[in-house]
Amino acid sequence: KAGVTQTPRYLIKTRGQQVTLSCSPISGHRSVSWYQQTPGQGLQFLFEYFSETQRNKGNFPGRFSGRQFSNSRSEMNVSTLELGDSALYLCASSLMPGPNEQFFGPGTRLTVL
Amino acid sequence: QQPVQSPQAVILREGEDAVINCSSSKALYSVHWYRQKHGEAPVFLMILLKGGEQKGHEKISASFNEKKQQSSLYLTASQLSYSGTYFCGTQEGGNTGKLIFGQGTTLQVKP
Chain B contact for A88, CB < 8 A? Predict the structure, then answer.
């Protein structure tokens, strides 16, 4: 069974630009969560999606948004990029929301110059 | 609020044991443990639910004290492959996938 895939793996943008990251969950998984990982802040929760609905949102500004499609694939978008948005963005999928194993993708490394 | 992990870092020799602790100020529904090696994605180790249920690897053991909202991960007879950063992630509800992660504990196992 294929794992969680994220595209692109690496991205370099400049301040003020916007970016869209994509996540394809494991087949059959309907719950997708996004996390931001930085050396200073660690792993921080961004969003949780299930059945195309955002169920939870972390403490991030409105520049961070996301969505989930009917095939469970998910995208997140960051507008008006800031230097502090440089991070590894991880997507995780699970069968359902709840106390279930989350399978993480390899992440997208975003660098904002 | 982010759970607090201790210690922040530990260095072991092969065969030695280690305990990593995770403490939250909030009432928890479950505690999850993940290990991340450098340059790789976090990998699931174990889930502990209130009520005592556990899901996870046979060779990893952990505990969850619901009254104190504390969890401990026990690594026995450590191997070189145990090296990495260990994260606890907490869930406050049973119907969410949202995990709040601790700051991580870096474990280095030396030959």
Answer: no
Using a CB–CB cutoff of 8 Å, tell me whether A56 touches chain B. yes
pLDDT tens digits for range A43-98: 999 999 999 999 999 999 999 999 999 999 999 999 999 999 999 999 999 999 88
Residue A24, SS3?
strand
Cβ-defined contact of A48 to B42 (cutoff 8 Å): no
Those residues of chain B that have pLDDT short of 50 are none
Cα-atom radius of gyration of chain A, to the nearest Å? Answer: 13
Q: Which residues of A are less than 8 Å from B100 in CB distance?
A: 45
Integer Cα distance of B76 and A29 in angstroms: 33
Residue A14 CA neighbour count, 13 Å, CB half: 0
**pLDDT value at residue A48:** 95
Question: What SS3 class is residue B3?
Answer: coil
